[in-house]
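Incident log, structure service

09:12 report received: a user says their structure output differs between two submissions of the same chain.
09:20 pulled the input from the user's history:
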Amino acid sequence: MRHFSEKAYRSLKCVCSVAYDLAGGNTLFQHSTRVVVSQLSKYASLNEDDEKSYMPIDVAVDLDRAAGSPI
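09:34 re-ran on a clean worker, output below:
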């Protein structure tokens, strides 16, 4: 498996928060995808418990669509 820098991984999580805001929030976005809000929160969380939780590509595509543009 290819590894990236810690900064790159943290950036992926931070981008989720921005995209959720553009999509009306993760509570609203959960109705446009297959994942519930508790899991969506983990994708944006910088907490150690969630450090290996990243958004699957199909959910990321749903989020880009809900946000109105690729993030």
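09:41 both user submissions now match this output. Likely a transient worker issue. Closing.
09:42 reviewer note: The chain has a mean pLDDT of 96. The chain is about 55% helix and 0% strand.
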